[in-house]
Design a protein that fits this description.
- The chain has 367 residues and is α+β, with helices and mostly antiparallel strands.
- The protein has 2 domains: 12-198, no CATH class; 210-365, no CATH class.
- The protein contains 13 helices and 13 strands.
- The strands form 4 sheets. Strands 5, 6, 7, 8 and 11 form a 5-stranded mixed sheet that branches. A 4-stranded antiparallel sheet has the order 3-2-4-9, with helices on one face.
- The longest helix is centred in the last third of the chain and has 20 residues, at 346-365.
- The chain is globular, with a radius of gyration of 22 Å.
Protein backbone atom coordinates (compact mmCIF):
# COMPACT_ATOMS: atom_id res chain seq x y z
CA UNK A 1 0.00 0.00 0.00
CA UNK A 2 1.38 3.37 -0.98
CA UNK A 3 1.54 5.67 2.03
CA UNK A 4 1.95 9.32 1.10
CA UNK A 5 1.51 12.05 3.72
CA UNK A 6 -0.61 9.72 5.80
CA UNK A 7 -2.65 8.35 2.89
CA UNK A 8 -3.33 4.76 3.77
CA UNK A 9 -6.62 2.90 3.39
CA UNK A 10 -8.66 5.76 1.91
CA UNK A 11 -7.11 8.44 -0.28
CA UNK A 12 -10.20 10.65 -0.25
CA UNK A 13 -12.36 11.85 2.60
CA UNK A 14 -15.83 10.92 1.41
CA UNK A 15 -18.54 13.46 2.03
CA UNK A 16 -16.17 16.40 1.65
CA UNK A 17 -16.53 18.07 -1.75
CA UNK A 18 -13.88 20.69 -2.55
CA UNK A 19 -13.61 23.19 -5.39
CA UNK A 20 -10.50 25.42 -5.40
CA UNK A 21 -11.33 29.08 -4.75
CA UNK A 22 -9.25 30.19 -7.75
CA UNK A 23 -11.71 28.63 -10.21
CA UNK A 24 -14.98 28.09 -8.34
CA UNK A 25 -16.57 31.44 -9.21
CA UNK A 26 -14.93 31.93 -12.59
CA UNK A 27 -16.97 31.33 -15.73
CA UNK A 28 -14.83 28.41 -16.84
CA UNK A 29 -17.22 25.49 -16.40
CA UNK A 30 -19.60 23.54 -18.61
CA UNK A 31 -21.25 20.12 -18.44
CA UNK A 32 -20.77 16.75 -20.09
CA UNK A 33 -22.58 13.52 -20.85
CA UNK A 34 -21.11 10.02 -20.75
CA UNK A 35 -21.66 8.33 -24.12
CA UNK A 36 -21.40 4.54 -24.32
CA UNK A 37 -19.21 4.55 -27.43
CA UNK A 38 -17.65 8.02 -27.48
CA UNK A 39 -16.86 8.60 -23.83
CA UNK A 40 -17.31 11.98 -22.18
CA UNK A 41 -18.82 14.59 -24.51
CA UNK A 42 -18.81 18.31 -23.54
CA UNK A 43 -22.30 19.83 -23.36
CA UNK A 44 -23.92 23.22 -22.94
CA UNK A 45 -24.89 24.05 -19.35
CA UNK A 46 -27.86 25.99 -20.73
CA UNK A 47 -29.64 22.91 -22.08
CA UNK A 48 -31.12 20.37 -19.69
CA UNK A 49 -31.09 17.76 -22.45
CA UNK A 50 -27.46 17.02 -23.51
CA UNK A 51 -26.46 19.43 -26.29
CA UNK A 52 -22.91 18.86 -27.53
CA UNK A 53 -20.38 21.68 -27.80
CA UNK A 54 -16.72 22.02 -28.77
CA UNK A 55 -15.01 21.55 -25.41
CA UNK A 56 -11.58 22.59 -26.69
CA UNK A 57 -12.88 25.95 -27.97
CA UNK A 58 -16.12 26.72 -26.12
CA UNK A 59 -18.00 29.93 -26.82
CA UNK A 60 -17.95 32.40 -23.94
CA UNK A 61 -21.71 32.13 -23.47
CA UNK A 62 -21.36 28.37 -22.88
CA UNK A 63 -19.16 28.94 -19.82
CA UNK A 64 -20.65 29.40 -16.36
CA UNK A 65 -19.56 29.23 -12.73
CA UNK A 66 -19.13 25.90 -11.00
CA UNK A 67 -22.36 26.27 -9.05
CA UNK A 68 -24.32 27.08 -12.20
CA UNK A 69 -22.89 24.06 -14.01
CA UNK A 70 -23.65 21.79 -11.05
CA UNK A 71 -27.22 23.08 -10.85
CA UNK A 72 -27.66 22.38 -14.58
CA UNK A 73 -26.62 18.75 -14.02
CA UNK A 74 -28.99 18.36 -11.07
CA UNK A 75 -31.93 19.85 -12.98
CA UNK A 76 -31.14 17.76 -16.05
CA UNK A 77 -31.16 14.54 -14.05
CA UNK A 78 -34.36 15.53 -12.28
CA UNK A 79 -36.08 16.11 -15.62
CA UNK A 80 -34.55 13.42 -17.86
CA UNK A 81 -33.31 10.83 -15.39
CA UNK A 82 -29.84 9.53 -14.65
CA UNK A 83 -29.42 7.71 -17.97
CA UNK A 84 -30.61 10.46 -20.32
CA UNK A 85 -29.62 13.59 -18.41
CA UNK A 86 -26.27 15.32 -18.04
CA UNK A 87 -23.55 13.34 -16.27
CA UNK A 88 -21.33 15.92 -14.58
CA UNK A 89 -19.30 19.11 -14.82
CA UNK A 90 -16.15 19.93 -16.77
CA UNK A 91 -13.48 22.55 -16.16
CA UNK A 92 -12.34 24.36 -19.31
CA UNK A 93 -8.58 24.46 -19.76
CA UNK A 94 -7.90 27.37 -22.07
CA UNK A 95 -5.50 30.30 -22.06
CA UNK A 96 -8.44 32.56 -22.92
CA UNK A 97 -10.50 31.34 -19.98
CA UNK A 98 -8.10 30.57 -17.11
CA UNK A 99 -4.54 31.47 -18.17
CA UNK A 100 -1.77 28.94 -17.43
CA UNK A 101 -4.09 26.31 -15.92
CA UNK A 102 -2.86 22.77 -16.58
CA UNK A 103 -3.76 19.26 -15.45
CA UNK A 104 -1.94 15.97 -15.00
CA UNK A 105 -4.26 13.06 -15.79
CA UNK A 106 -3.13 9.62 -14.57
CA UNK A 107 -5.40 6.73 -15.54
CA UNK A 108 -5.76 3.35 -13.79
CA UNK A 109 -3.50 4.30 -10.90
CA UNK A 110 -5.81 3.73 -7.91
CA UNK A 111 -7.14 0.33 -6.88
CA UNK A 112 -10.97 0.45 -7.14
CA UNK A 113 -11.46 -1.42 -3.86
CA UNK A 114 -8.18 -1.13 -1.99
CA UNK A 115 -7.48 2.52 -2.78
CA UNK A 116 -3.85 1.55 -3.29
CA UNK A 117 -1.93 3.86 -5.61
CA UNK A 118 0.63 2.83 -8.18
CA UNK A 119 4.22 3.88 -7.58
CA UNK A 120 3.94 6.52 -10.32
CA UNK A 121 0.84 8.08 -8.76
CA UNK A 122 2.33 7.99 -5.28
CA UNK A 123 5.48 9.73 -6.51
CA UNK A 124 3.46 12.41 -8.29
CA UNK A 125 1.37 13.11 -5.19
CA UNK A 126 4.49 13.32 -3.06
CA UNK A 127 6.19 15.70 -5.50
CA UNK A 128 3.16 17.95 -5.97
CA UNK A 129 1.27 17.83 -2.67
CA UNK A 130 1.32 21.65 -2.63
CA UNK A 131 -1.44 21.73 -5.25
CA UNK A 132 -4.98 20.36 -5.62
CA UNK A 133 -5.51 16.70 -6.54
CA UNK A 134 -8.78 14.83 -7.01
CA UNK A 135 -9.92 11.32 -7.87
CA UNK A 136 -11.35 11.03 -11.39
CA UNK A 137 -14.99 10.03 -12.10
CA UNK A 138 -13.98 6.39 -12.62
CA UNK A 139 -12.53 6.25 -9.10
CA UNK A 140 -9.35 4.70 -10.47
CA UNK A 141 -7.55 7.78 -11.83
CA UNK A 142 -6.16 11.06 -10.51
CA UNK A 143 -6.20 14.68 -11.70
CA UNK A 144 -3.59 17.15 -10.50
CA UNK A 145 -4.20 20.86 -11.20
CA UNK A 146 -1.61 23.63 -11.27
CA UNK A 147 -0.75 26.93 -12.91
CA UNK A 148 2.25 26.72 -15.24
CA UNK A 149 3.17 29.86 -17.18
CA UNK A 150 5.76 28.02 -19.30
CA UNK A 151 3.35 25.43 -20.69
CA UNK A 152 3.99 22.25 -22.66
CA UNK A 153 7.28 21.23 -24.24
CA UNK A 154 6.50 21.02 -27.96
CA UNK A 155 9.20 18.39 -28.54
CA UNK A 156 7.64 15.79 -26.23
CA UNK A 157 4.44 13.76 -26.26
CA UNK A 158 1.49 15.28 -24.48
CA UNK A 159 -0.24 11.92 -24.00
CA UNK A 160 2.01 9.01 -23.12
CA UNK A 161 2.93 7.61 -19.69
CA UNK A 162 1.43 10.83 -18.33
CA UNK A 163 -1.40 12.78 -19.93
CA UNK A 164 -0.76 16.51 -19.64
CA UNK A 165 -3.29 19.07 -20.82
CA UNK A 166 -3.60 22.84 -21.14
CA UNK A 167 -6.35 23.17 -23.76
CA UNK A 168 -9.36 20.91 -23.31
CA UNK A 169 -12.14 20.13 -20.88
CA UNK A 170 -11.41 17.95 -17.87
CA UNK A 171 -14.08 16.17 -15.86
CA UNK A 172 -14.23 17.42 -12.29
CA UNK A 173 -15.35 15.48 -9.21
CA UNK A 174 -14.15 17.53 -6.24
CA UNK A 175 -13.18 14.28 -4.47
CA UNK A 176 -10.09 15.78 -2.91
CA UNK A 177 -7.05 13.58 -2.31
CA UNK A 178 -6.01 13.64 1.33
CA UNK A 179 -2.70 15.26 2.12
CA UNK A 180 -2.74 17.57 -0.89
CA UNK A 181 -3.59 21.27 -0.99
CA UNK A 182 -7.14 22.53 -1.40
CA UNK A 183 -5.98 25.29 -3.75
CA UNK A 184 -4.22 25.23 -7.13
CA UNK A 185 -0.54 26.07 -6.81
CA UNK A 186 1.76 27.88 -9.24
CA UNK A 187 4.40 25.51 -10.64
CA UNK A 188 6.12 27.22 -13.61
CA UNK A 189 8.01 24.77 -15.82
CA UNK A 190 6.51 21.72 -14.14
CA UNK A 191 4.48 20.38 -17.06
CA UNK A 192 7.47 20.46 -19.41
CA UNK A 193 9.69 18.83 -16.81
CA UNK A 194 7.28 15.94 -16.37
CA UNK A 195 6.95 15.54 -20.14
CA UNK A 196 10.71 15.16 -20.44
CA UNK A 197 10.88 12.85 -17.44
CA UNK A 198 8.08 10.42 -18.35
CA UNK A 199 6.97 10.89 -21.96
CA UNK A 200 8.63 10.12 -25.29
CA UNK A 201 9.82 12.68 -27.80
CA UNK A 202 7.47 13.55 -30.64
CA UNK A 203 8.24 12.48 -34.17
CA UNK A 204 8.53 15.28 -36.69
CA UNK A 205 5.95 15.79 -39.41
CA UNK A 206 8.87 15.81 -41.85
CA UNK A 207 10.04 12.34 -40.79
CA UNK A 208 9.84 9.66 -43.43
CA UNK A 209 7.45 6.80 -42.75
CA UNK A 210 10.42 4.58 -41.82
CA UNK A 211 11.70 7.12 -39.28
CA UNK A 212 8.16 7.66 -38.00
CA UNK A 213 7.67 3.94 -37.40
CA UNK A 214 11.11 3.55 -35.84
CA UNK A 215 10.35 6.28 -33.31
CA UNK A 216 7.03 4.66 -32.52
CA UNK A 217 8.76 1.34 -31.95
CA UNK A 218 11.16 3.00 -29.51
CA UNK A 219 8.24 3.80 -27.20
CA UNK A 220 6.68 1.11 -25.03
CA UNK A 221 3.20 1.52 -26.46
CA UNK A 222 4.57 1.80 -29.99
CA UNK A 223 6.34 -1.54 -29.69
CA UNK A 224 3.19 -3.19 -28.39
CA UNK A 225 0.72 -2.03 -30.99
CA UNK A 226 2.98 -2.05 -34.05
CA UNK A 227 4.51 -5.43 -33.31
CA UNK A 228 1.07 -6.96 -32.76
CA UNK A 229 -0.42 -5.71 -36.02
CA UNK A 230 -0.19 -6.51 -39.71
CA UNK A 231 2.87 -5.70 -41.78
CA UNK A 232 2.96 -2.58 -43.94
CA UNK A 233 2.10 -4.36 -47.19
CA UNK A 234 -1.04 -5.90 -45.69
CA UNK A 235 -2.24 -2.47 -44.59
CA UNK A 236 -1.99 -0.95 -48.04
CA UNK A 237 -3.46 -3.77 -50.15
CA UNK A 238 -6.90 -5.35 -50.24
CA UNK A 239 -8.68 -2.61 -48.32
CA UNK A 240 -12.44 -2.80 -48.75
CA UNK A 241 -12.41 -6.14 -50.60
CA UNK A 242 -15.10 -7.65 -48.37
CA UNK A 243 -15.49 -10.97 -46.58
CA UNK A 244 -14.62 -13.02 -49.66
CA UNK A 245 -11.04 -11.76 -49.35
CA UNK A 246 -10.77 -13.38 -45.90
CA UNK A 247 -10.10 -17.00 -45.02
CA UNK A 248 -9.94 -19.31 -42.04
CA UNK A 249 -10.67 -17.84 -38.62
CA UNK A 250 -11.11 -14.27 -39.84
CA UNK A 251 -13.71 -15.32 -42.40
CA UNK A 252 -15.65 -17.36 -39.83
CA UNK A 253 -15.83 -14.43 -37.44
CA UNK A 254 -16.72 -11.91 -40.16
CA UNK A 255 -19.51 -14.12 -41.51
CA UNK A 256 -20.94 -14.58 -38.01
CA UNK A 257 -20.82 -10.82 -37.43
CA UNK A 258 -22.80 -10.17 -40.60
CA UNK A 259 -25.32 -12.95 -40.00
CA UNK A 260 -26.06 -12.18 -36.36
CA UNK A 261 -24.91 -8.58 -36.00
CA UNK A 262 -26.55 -5.25 -36.83
CA UNK A 263 -27.42 -3.57 -40.12
CA UNK A 264 -24.24 -1.48 -40.06
CA UNK A 265 -22.17 -4.62 -40.57
CA UNK A 266 -24.23 -5.62 -43.60
CA UNK A 267 -23.73 -2.18 -45.13
CA UNK A 268 -20.00 -2.25 -44.47
CA UNK A 269 -19.25 -5.75 -45.70
CA UNK A 270 -21.99 -6.81 -48.12
CA UNK A 271 -23.36 -3.58 -49.57
CA UNK A 272 -19.97 -1.87 -49.72
CA UNK A 273 -21.35 1.49 -48.61
CA UNK A 274 -20.02 3.16 -45.48
CA UNK A 275 -21.59 6.58 -46.03
CA UNK A 276 -24.70 5.81 -44.00
CA UNK A 277 -22.57 4.44 -41.17
CA UNK A 278 -20.40 7.56 -41.07
CA UNK A 279 -23.46 9.81 -41.08
CA UNK A 280 -24.64 8.24 -37.82
CA UNK A 281 -21.44 9.38 -36.10
CA UNK A 282 -21.28 13.15 -35.92
CA UNK A 283 -19.34 15.73 -33.98
CA UNK A 284 -19.00 19.50 -33.99
CA UNK A 285 -16.38 20.60 -36.53
CA UNK A 286 -15.58 23.73 -38.48
CA UNK A 287 -16.49 23.72 -42.16
CA UNK A 288 -14.56 25.45 -44.95
CA UNK A 289 -16.11 28.79 -44.00
CA UNK A 290 -15.07 28.45 -40.37
CA UNK A 291 -18.61 27.78 -39.15
CA UNK A 292 -19.19 25.05 -36.59
CA UNK A 293 -21.70 22.37 -37.51
CA UNK A 294 -22.31 18.67 -37.04
CA UNK A 295 -20.16 16.70 -39.47
CA UNK A 296 -19.41 12.98 -39.92
CA UNK A 297 -16.92 11.63 -37.39
CA UNK A 298 -15.18 8.89 -39.34
CA UNK A 299 -12.64 8.00 -36.66
CA UNK A 300 -15.40 7.22 -34.16
CA UNK A 301 -17.23 5.11 -36.75
CA UNK A 302 -14.03 3.17 -37.42
CA UNK A 303 -13.38 2.60 -33.73
CA UNK A 304 -16.96 1.42 -33.26
CA UNK A 305 -16.43 -1.18 -35.97
CA UNK A 306 -13.18 -2.32 -34.36
CA UNK A 307 -14.99 -2.73 -31.03
CA UNK A 308 -17.61 -4.93 -32.72
CA UNK A 309 -14.90 -7.05 -34.34
CA UNK A 310 -13.15 -7.40 -30.98
CA UNK A 311 -16.35 -8.53 -29.30
CA UNK A 312 -17.08 -11.16 -31.93
CA UNK A 313 -13.47 -12.28 -32.16
CA UNK A 314 -12.58 -12.24 -28.45
CA UNK A 315 -15.75 -12.44 -26.36
CA UNK A 316 -18.49 -14.28 -28.29
CA UNK A 317 -18.77 -17.86 -27.02
CA UNK A 318 -19.56 -19.36 -30.43
CA UNK A 319 -15.86 -19.81 -31.23
CA UNK A 320 -13.20 -21.93 -29.55
CA UNK A 321 -10.48 -19.36 -30.27
CA UNK A 322 -9.69 -15.68 -29.83
CA UNK A 323 -8.50 -13.51 -32.69
CA UNK A 324 -5.16 -11.75 -32.30
CA UNK A 325 -4.51 -8.13 -33.23
CA UNK A 326 -3.39 -8.84 -36.80
CA UNK A 327 -6.57 -10.86 -37.47
CA UNK A 328 -8.76 -8.09 -36.05
CA UNK A 329 -7.00 -5.58 -38.30
CA UNK A 330 -7.49 -7.91 -41.29
CA UNK A 331 -11.27 -8.04 -40.77
CA UNK A 332 -11.40 -4.28 -40.28
CA UNK A 333 -9.41 -3.59 -43.45
CA UNK A 334 -11.71 -5.80 -45.52
CA UNK A 335 -14.67 -3.49 -44.77
CA UNK A 336 -15.76 -0.62 -46.98
CA UNK A 337 -14.99 1.85 -44.20
CA UNK A 338 -11.28 1.03 -44.56
CA UNK A 339 -11.16 2.51 -48.06
CA UNK A 340 -10.47 5.88 -46.43
CA UNK A 341 -6.88 6.90 -47.16
CA UNK A 342 -6.09 7.29 -43.48
CA UNK A 343 -6.65 3.55 -43.04
CA UNK A 344 -3.64 2.87 -45.27
CA UNK A 345 -1.44 4.09 -42.41
CA UNK A 346 -0.20 1.12 -40.35
CA UNK A 347 0.28 3.29 -37.26
CA UNK A 348 -3.33 4.56 -37.35
CA UNK A 349 -4.98 1.17 -37.84
CA UNK A 350 -2.70 -0.68 -35.43
CA UNK A 351 -3.06 1.89 -32.66
CA UNK A 352 -6.85 1.95 -33.08
CA UNK A 353 -7.00 -1.85 -33.01
CA UNK A 354 -4.70 -1.97 -29.99
CA UNK A 355 -6.95 0.47 -28.09
CA UNK A 356 -10.08 -1.48 -29.05
CA UNK A 357 -8.52 -4.73 -27.85
CA UNK A 358 -7.47 -3.19 -24.54
CA UNK A 359 -10.94 -1.71 -24.01
CA UNK A 360 -12.56 -5.07 -24.82
CA UNK A 361 -10.32 -6.79 -22.29
CA UNK A 362 -11.16 -4.23 -19.61
CA UNK A 363 -14.90 -4.29 -20.33
CA UNK A 364 -15.47 -8.02 -20.84
CA UNK A 365 -12.49 -10.23 -20.03
CA UNK A 366 -10.61 -8.86 -17.02
CA UNK A 367 -11.72 -10.15 -13.64
Amino acid sequence: MAEINGLEDEIVEEGHFIVPDSVEDKECWYTYVEHEERGKIPCSPHSLYPSWIDGANPDEDELVTFQEALEAVEKSRAKHGHDDGLTGVMLALSADVVPDLAVIDIDDCVGPESGEMTELAANMIEDLDSTFWEVSPSGTGLHGYYFDSKGLDSEYQQKDTLELYTNRGVTFTGRHVKGTAQEIDECPGMIGAYQRMYNDEKYSESDTSDVHEQKLRESVQGREYLDGGLDDESHTSGRGDGVDALSGRTKRVAEAMIQYGDDDLVRLYENGDSRDVWSEWETMKKDEDGNERLMPDRSSAEFSLLMKICWWGMVADMFDFQLDQSEIEEIFLSSDIARRQKCARPDYVSLSAYKAIEKTRRDYLDD
